[in-house]
Amino acid sequence: MGELAYVSRVRIVRIQGPLRRAHLPGEEEPVFFGVHDEVAAHYGVAEPGEAERATTLDYIVAGAGG
Description:
Helix content is about 25%, strand content about 20%. By secondary structure, it is α+β, with helices and mostly antiparallel strands.
């Protein structure tokens, strides 16, 4: 194996329930993740409230599509 080309420095803080704040390289402001629609229903989150945000899966799909 060769030398590492990149190490991602990400910090994730769980705020409450499914709501999380991620500090990502290249972003001045944190990114928030939560649950919505079918994901909330699947995990039994009846009313996402403040956690009604894009999921980590949404970001993975968007990243892979780009």
